[in-house]
């Protein structure tokens, strides 16, 4: 691929000397998967990128430079694009609704494409925001008026947190792993959750979980010969990060027929296949609860995975950001660390990284960029390297660090704010569970649509069994069938979903991802509009 | 037995090549000593609040209200928050769709990017396009994103000043590029030497390196020099001739301690120069809420502004930005407040100005105190800190000291700095962390310790230094004062 880049440079330079514009290969970055991944990321305002219109500028004196910034090949391959046609189109429609109300068969755009709860009306947890506000402006803690505006335990917690910060200076860079006292609190929260000890030194607080994932990819990937096992379907951060760091994605397919089951036999098959092609498979990413698939792994399944990683010498990258989003009684969240430790496996047996975030759960604080990774089972000199990379950025934002410690250490029974906290938390989670069920039932009621249960996370990933006519129409329009369906859905109802190709799917199958996040009172209207659209779509394209 | 994937041997080599001395050996030793109970004065990183500088009141009020919007509806809110903070909080909340807890546009909230564009327009006298301004979790993330976009492989070279802030060297290592050094002239007040720069470029090219970009830090870090308009003009002409994109790190633009050379942005000079340069030279400018008189390092707020980049390039940079979803929203609001502070007539204006001036005037005094203090020490010469937050004295170690360092297995400046740390608790960063000419040694310290502590700190330094020099030399030392 590097050769490709150099060839392109040579062409551009040669072209400029010949005074012709050399046609660079068209690298249409809006492939369906890129588009889908883009839509998963949220609103965009830019038109699609094409490569042929980049301006090569004429060199004045020397042969071998080009004035424009050329892109590394990794950047080109990385398809976590924000130019999703679906979302761009949704934004255009939104503009239209404002300038020409009544021009469409719907009043508003409903963004069901991105896991961004508070943008759709979910309220933040009051206690958390009280503490954060006080930590942001500690000079009011001394004032008597503050007691009229804030709960006593929020004030107490703010004092306690500020005492953990040297000089109570929340505006100072902290230790590069995050404030020690906050890491202690998080470690205590992890231990309370799992029943196994956790160490503050194993925790790296980051600006959201995503930067932590990038850090691990950076460490693990040396070249395109290094492979990372990823579930298909997957959250496209993984595919994008692997591409950006120049590695190879080794897919393992989740089994839709068994509720998106993770079969170790499938993983093993893919691992061996990759190895036979000369790929050194370094790690496996497991998202539990799953995104976009929403399954919660059974304990037995998790044990198999741990055993497999130990045997094959794979780092287990456990994306556990949806650990608080469980909607079924027959499953519960178990961290991979808990499972490994309960199997008697310690630091020497398995290298394990667990990612957690403040963006999901019941707190949904996406815009704060708070999260951490807990890294266990590797040597001191490797830990030093992780620290070193973290230190170049100095530290993650302090407010996000504080929030992570609150999430892992919320109000307890007996605290003044406990009752209102638990009411808010349970209110949000039970509503999410109801919305998950309502939308799942709705999808399953549609002709030619099957939808696995959302046991957890924030998404439904229904499968479209599209009639042949629809598939042909999509082909004629030069889009993937799921993108074709999603676009029609948007145009008819204002509902924005992400075509399944953005997440990966078994070839020849079509899906889309829809969040369960619109407020509960909007759900009936969404369902009825969806049904009406689907019926007319199937009517139009029935065989 | 196959090595495990996370064994040291099988880590990405580029990661191993990274060095970031600011939080390196000296800092780690200082942290150890602190744990043992020793009083440490951390002057290793530009972290004002950690050394007692107070946050400005108005921004903290606004962000606290944004964190807890339910306060805005409380009848008692006026008891604790002035009306202009309340209305500003509403203003920023209205820019979001869902408050601080929702991901914003990956480039940052459009409303805040517009405020940044307005600030740049007023500062420079040329309009700025919000679409070409991307907010980031601190300026460092922006620098890393841009370097990641430029560097394809080890044949891509980035011109970096020596001495430099090691974010640049670390990032170039991490992304597998080549650092092409250009030396700043210490005797000429850390000035630019274009003959030397041209030589560097030629040498790199002869080794097959394609030099793609040039980094300029103005005001300088660690060196503190403020560039003149003529300097910047020369730089831009150079970039034009050599087809380089100029990466202008301007995070210290508010930290100016002399009046001869106020801050002028590279962008302003570029546009002053008119076409063809103003339309051709590619420029990326960086700024932050971490420095200046704000010092809000922990918020991680920053931005970069792109000039003369083709729209497809901008799109690609947007794409990479989107992988990080969005910069943190509170940090964005701090940035908005920084570029759009209280105005005359606002309730909070007087207090804001008073707080700001106090910080800047004190920094100016401390810059002088430190420079003079270092110059009064034996074998130490120190250029004046014209801007930024650091002092970078040259330490002329006697041969016997260098020998002792070698015996201890340490670079001479590391040896000196460790000695300084053990004796006085002052935690500095050895000059080797920033780059320096062969055999010329320095250390970097910040000018951030509280003004009232400065005399004692400088006295403590002088005592250690003069005793150290006494110990290791027989002849008279050199002192500038």
Mean pLDDT of chain B: 95
Helix tally of chain B equals: 17
How many strands of chain A?
14
Helix fraction bin of chain B? 40-55%
Strand order of the largest sheet of chain A: 2-8-7-6-5-3-4
Q: Largest sheet of chain A, described in full?
A: 7 strands, mixed
- What characterizes the major β-sheet of chain B? 7 strands, mixed
Summing up helix and strand content along with how strands pair, one would put the structural category of chain B as alpha/beta
Function (chain B): Transfer of C3 units between the cytosol of mesophyll and bundle sheath cells to maintain a nitrogen-carbon balance in the C4-dicarboxylic pathway.
Domain Aminotransferase class I/classII large (chain B): 95-450
Subunit structure (chain B): Homodimer.
Cofactor (chain B): pyridoxal 5'-phosphate
What does this structure look like?
- The complex is a heterodimer of chains A (543) and B (481).
- Helix content of chain A is 43%, strand content 11%.
- By secondary structure, chain A is an alpha/beta fold.
- In chain A, the strands form three sheets. A seven-stranded mixed β-sheet of chain A has the order 2-8-7-6-5-3-4, with helices on both faces.
- In chain A, helix 8 (180-194) packs parallel to helix 15 (398-407).
- Chain A is globular.
- With 481 residues, chain B is α/β, with parallel strands linked by helices.
- Chain B folds into two domains: 8-52 and 353-472, Aspartate Aminotransferase, domain 1 (Alpha-Beta Complex); 99-339, Aspartate Aminotransferase, domain 2, CATH 3.40.640.10.
- Chain B is built from 17 helices and 14 strands.
- In chain B, helix 7 links the parallel strand 3 and strand 4 (178-183).
- In chain B, helix 6 (139-150) packs across helix 7 (167-174) and helix 14 (349-375) runs parallel beside helix 17 (454-472).
- Chain B is globular, with a radius of gyration of 23 Å.
- Chain B: Its EC number is 2.6.1.2, 2.6.1.4, 2.6.1.44.
- Chain B: One of its GO terms (cellular component) is peroxisome.
- Chain B: Keywords: Aminotransferase, Pyridoxal phosphate, Transferase.
- Chain B: Its cofactor is pyridoxal 5'-phosphate.
- Chain B: Pathway: Amino-acid degradation; L-alanine degradation via transaminase pathway; pyruvate from L-alanine: step 1/1; Photosynthesis; C4 acid pathway.
């Amino acid at each position: 691929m590097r050769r490709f880049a150099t060839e392109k440079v040579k062409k551009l330079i040669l072209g400029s000397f010949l005074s012709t514009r050399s046609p660079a290969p068209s690298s249409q970055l809006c492939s369906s998967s890129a588009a889908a991944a883009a839509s998963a990321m949220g609103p965009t305002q830019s038109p699609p990128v094409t490569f042929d219109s980049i301006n090569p500028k004429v060199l004045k004196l020397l042969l071998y430079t080009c004035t424009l910034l050329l892109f590394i090949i990794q950047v080109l391959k990385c398809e976590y694009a924000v130019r999703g046609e679906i979302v761009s189109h949704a934004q255009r429609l939104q503009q239209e609704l404002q300038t020409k109300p009544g021009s469409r068969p719907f009043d508003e755009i409903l963004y069901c494409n991105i896991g961004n709860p508070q943008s759709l009306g979910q309220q933040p947890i009051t206690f958390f925001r009280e503490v954060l506000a006080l930590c942001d402006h500690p000079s009011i803690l001394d004032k008597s008026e503050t007691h009229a505006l804030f709960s006593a335990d929020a004030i107490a917690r703010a004092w306690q947190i500020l005492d953990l910060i040297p000089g109570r200076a929340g505006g100072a860079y902290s230790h590069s792993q995050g404030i020690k006292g906050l890491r202690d609190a998080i470690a205590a929260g992890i231990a309370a959750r799992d029943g196994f000890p956790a160490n503050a030194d194993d925790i790296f607080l980051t600006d959201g979980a995503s930067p932590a994932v990038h850090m691990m990819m950076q460490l693990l990937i040396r070249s395109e010969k290094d492979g990372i096992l990823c579930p298909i379907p997957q959250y496209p951060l993984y595919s994008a990060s692997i591409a950006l760091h120049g590695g190879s994605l080794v897919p393992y397919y989740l089994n839709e027929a068994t509720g998106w089951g993770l079969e170790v036999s499938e993983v093993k098959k893919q691992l061996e296949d990759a190895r036979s092609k000369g790929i050194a498979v370094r790690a496996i990413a497991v998202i539990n609860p799953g995104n976009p698939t929403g399954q919660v792994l059974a304990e037995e399944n998790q044990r198999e995975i741990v055993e497999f990683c130990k045997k094959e010498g794979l780092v287990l990258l456990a994306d556990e950001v949806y650990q608080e989003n469980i909607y079924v009684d027959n499953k519960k969240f178990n961290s991979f660390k808990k499972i490994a430790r309960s199997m008697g496996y310690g630091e020497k047996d398995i290298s394990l990284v667990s990612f957690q975030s403040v963006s999901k759960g019941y707190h949904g604080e996406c815009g704060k960029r708070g999260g951490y990774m807990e890294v266990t089972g590797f040597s001191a000199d490797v830990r030093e390297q992780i620290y070193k990379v973290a230190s170049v950025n100095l530290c993650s934002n302090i407010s996000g660090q504080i929030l992570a410690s609150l999430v892992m250490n919320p109000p307890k029974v007996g605290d003044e704010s406990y009752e209102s906290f638990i009411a808010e938390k349970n209110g949000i989670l039970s509503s999410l569970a109801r919305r998950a069920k309502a939308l799942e039932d709705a999808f399953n009621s549609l002709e030619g649509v099957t939808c696995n249960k959302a046991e957890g996370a924030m998404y439904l990933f229904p499968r479209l069994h599209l009639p042949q006519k629809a598939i042909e129409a999509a082909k004629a329009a030069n889009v993937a069938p799921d993108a074709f369906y999603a676009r029609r859905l948007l145009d008819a109802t204002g509902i924005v979903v992400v075509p399944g190709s953005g997440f990966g799917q078994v070839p020849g199958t079509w899906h889309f991802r829809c969040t369960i996040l619109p407020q509960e009172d909007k759900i009936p209207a969404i369902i009825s509009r969806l049904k009406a659209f689907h019926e007319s779509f199937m009517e139009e394209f029935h065989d | 037995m196959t090595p495990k994937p996370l064994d040291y041997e099988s880590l990405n080599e580029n990661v191993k090549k990274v060095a970031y001395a600011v939080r390196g050996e000296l800092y780690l030793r200082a942290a150890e000593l602190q744990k043992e109970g020793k009083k440490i004065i951390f002057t290793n990183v530009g972290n004002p609040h950690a050394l007692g500088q107070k946050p400005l009141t108005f921004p903290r009020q606004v962000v606290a209200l944004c964190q807890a919007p339910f306060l805005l509806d409380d009848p008692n809110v006026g008891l604790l928050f002035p009306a202009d903070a309340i209305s500003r909080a509403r203003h920023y909340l209205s820019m979001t769709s869902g408050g601080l807890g929702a991901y914003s546009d990956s480039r940052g909230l459009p409303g805040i990017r517009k405020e940044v564009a307005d600030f740049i327009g007023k500062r420079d006298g040329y309009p700025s396009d919000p679409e070409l301004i991307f907010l980031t979790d601190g300026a460092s993330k922006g620098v890393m994103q841009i370097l990641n976009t430029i560097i394809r492989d080890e044949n891509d070279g980035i011109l970096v000043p020596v001495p430099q802030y090691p974010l640049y060297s670390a990032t170039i290592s991490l992304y597998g590029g080549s650092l092409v050094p250009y030396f700043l002239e210490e005797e000429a007040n850390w000035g630019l030497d274009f003959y030397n720069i041209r030589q560097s470029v030629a040498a790199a090219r002869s080794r097959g390196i394609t030099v793609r970009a040039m980094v300029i830090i103005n005001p300088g870090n660690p060196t503190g020099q403020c560039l003149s308009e003529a300097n910047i003009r020369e730089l831009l002409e150079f970039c034009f001739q050599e087809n380089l994109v100029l990466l202008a790190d301007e995070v210290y633009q508010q930290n100016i301690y002399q009046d001869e050379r106020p801050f002028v942005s590279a962008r302003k000079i570029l546009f002053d120069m008119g076409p063809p340069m103003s339309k051709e030279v590619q420029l990326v400018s960086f700024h932050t809420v971490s420095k200046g008189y704000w010092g809000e390092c922990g918020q991680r707020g920053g931005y970069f502004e792109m000039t003369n980049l083709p729209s497809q390039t901008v799109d690609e940079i947007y794409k990479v930005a989107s992988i990080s979803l969005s910069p943190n929203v509170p940090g964005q609001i701090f940035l908005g407040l920084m570029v759009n502070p209280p105005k005359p007539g606002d309730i909070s204006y007087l207090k804001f100005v008073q707080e700001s001036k106090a910080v800047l005037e004190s920094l100016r005094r401390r810059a002088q105190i430190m420079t003079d203090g270092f110059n009064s020490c034996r074998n130490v010469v120190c250029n004046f800190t014209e801007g930024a937050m650091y002092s970078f004295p040259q330490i002329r170690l006697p041969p016997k000291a260098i020998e002792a360092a070698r015996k201890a297995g340490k670079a001479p400046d590391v040896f000196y700095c460790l000695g300084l740390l053990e004796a006085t608790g002052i935690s500095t960063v050895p000059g080797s962390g920033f780059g320096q000419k062969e055999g010329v040694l320095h250390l970097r310290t910040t000018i951030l310790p509280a003004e009232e502590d400065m005399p004692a700190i400088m006295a403590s330094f002088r005592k250690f230094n003069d005793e150290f020099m006494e110990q290791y030399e027989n002849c008279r030392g050199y002192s500038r004062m």
